[in-house]
């Protein structure tokens, strides 16, 4: 863990967004960093899909940058074809 220097304006934006979403300033900053990282690594995904990836990652034990970088995060096995009668 370390210290990250940010502008006063960004700190205020984090405070406002964190309060609105019931997150601490640190939790809000980490959320925005995760979303930004996933957006850069997967530009084809929209915000909803990125949030789904974050939820899947949490259910799998947390976000692992190596897994995200390889494109394995969010991969689901294909469902078996079903016959419709």
What do you see in this structure?
The protein has 85 residues and is an all-alpha fold. It has one domain (8-70). Helices cover 58% and strands 0% of the residues. α2 (25-41) crosses α3. It is globular, with a radius of gyration of 17 Å.
Q: Count of DSSP E strands?
A: 0
Q: How much of the residues is beta strand, in percent?
A: under 5%
Helix content: 55-70%
Q: Let me know the average pLDDT.
A: 82
> How many domains?
1
> How does the overall form come out from the CA principal axes?
globular
**Which residues form runs of ≥5 with pLDDT under 50?**
76-85
Helix/sheet category: mainly alpha
List the helices and strands and how they pair.
Blueprint lengths: L7 H13 L4 H17 L5 H13 L5 H6 L15
Helix pairs in contact: 1-2, 2-3
Task: Describe the structure concisely for a colleague.
The protein is mostly helical and 85 residues long.
Looking at this protein, list some descriptive labels:
85 residues, 58% helix, globular, disordered C terminus, mainly alpha
């Amino acid at each position: 863990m370390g210290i990250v220097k940010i502008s006063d304006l960004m700190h205020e934006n984090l405070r406002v967004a964190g309060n609105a979403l019931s997150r601490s300033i640190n939790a809000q900053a980490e959320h925005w960093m995760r979303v930004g990282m996933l957006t850069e690594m997967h530009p084809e995904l929209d915000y909803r899909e990125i949030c789904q990836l974050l939820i899947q990652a949490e259910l799998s034990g947390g976000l692992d940058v190596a897994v995200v970088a390889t494109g394995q995060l969010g991969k689901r096995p294909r469902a078996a074809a079903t016959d419709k009668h």
